[in-house]
Design goal:
Strand order of the largest sheet: 1-2-8-11-10-9
Largest sheet: 6 strands, antiparallel
Distance between the termini: 57 Å
Number of helices: 4
Number of strands: 11
Order of helices and strands: EEEHEEEHEEHEEEH
Helix content: 10-25%
Length: 190
C-alpha cells in the first residue's frame, strides 16, 4: 500500500501580483485568535490583555499593534481578534497562556484568509467593491470594519497610509482573490 503524507497549506499560498502600482499578496504564517470577554469578567479580561500585550484593547472598530507585533482588533464590546505571525498550529494555546484564563480564546486561523494590499491606488481599487467610505479622514490608519465585497463578508483593516489587510472566509478564498484582482485591473484600465 502506498504511503501518503498530507501537508497543510493556506488556500492562497504564494499568491502575489502587482497591478496598477498596487502589490497584492497573501501574507504567510498569519494566526488569528478570537478573544471573548466573559460576562462579569470584563475588567479582569481587559487587565489581562494590557498585561500580556502592553496595550489597551482599542475601541470598537479600531485596532492597535502591540510591541511584539500582535494586532488587536476590537469588533464588539466583548469580542476582539489577536492577529499575529505564527507558523505552527498552536496559536490559540499561545494566546490563552498569555491571558491566564481571563479571556475565552478560539483559534480562527483556518476559518479566515488574508489579503494584503499596498500602493497608491489601493483605496481606489477597494472603493470599487467596498460600500464603506474609505476616505483617509473617515477610515484612518488602524481602523477596522466588517463589510461586504462582491457578496463576500470581509473584515477590512487600514494598516498604513496606502496599506490594507482584508480578511474573508477561507471557503471562498479564490473568489475573494479574484474580486480584488479584478478591481485592481479595472483601476489600471481607467
Amino acid at each position: 500500500m502506498a504511503e501518503y503524507t498530507l501537508q497543510a497549506e493556506p488556500p492562497l499560498a504564494g499568491a502575489e501580483i502587482e497591478i496598477a502600482g498596487v502589490r497584492l499578496w497573501a501574507p504567510a504564517d498569519l494566526a488569528l485568535v478570537s478573544l471573548a470577554l466573559p460576562l462579569g469578567g470584563e475588567d479582569a479580561a481587559l487587565t489581562a490583555i494590557r498585561a500580556a500585550y502592553g496595550v489597551d484593547l482599542p475601541d470598537i472598530g479600531r485596532s492597535v499593534v502591540a510591541d511584539d507585533g500582535t494586532r488587536l482588533i476590537r469588533l464588539a464590546p466583548d469580542l476582539a481578534f489577536a492577529l499575529f505571525t505564527h507558523a505552527t498550529p498552536d496559536a490559540e494555546r499561545v494566546v490563552a497562556d498569555r491571558l491566564n484564563g481571563a479571556v475565552y480564546t478560539t483559534d480562527q486561523t483556518d476559518v479566515w484568509v488574508a489579503l494584503a494590499l499596498s500602493g497608491p491606488n489601493t483605496r481606489r481599487a477597494l472603493e470599487r467593491i467596498c460600500p464603506l467610505d474609505l476616505h483617509r479622514q473617515v477610515f484612518a490608519v488602524d481602523h477596522a470594519a466588517r463589510t461586504v465585497m462582491e457578496h463576500l463578508g470581509v473584515l477590512i483593516l487600514r494598516t498604513g497610509e496606502d496599506d490594507y489587510l482584508l480578511l474573508s472566509a477561507s471557503s471562498s478564498a479564490k473568489s475573494f482573490l479574484h474580486a480584488v484582482e479584478v478591481s485592481l485591473t479595472n483601476v489600471n484600465q481607467t
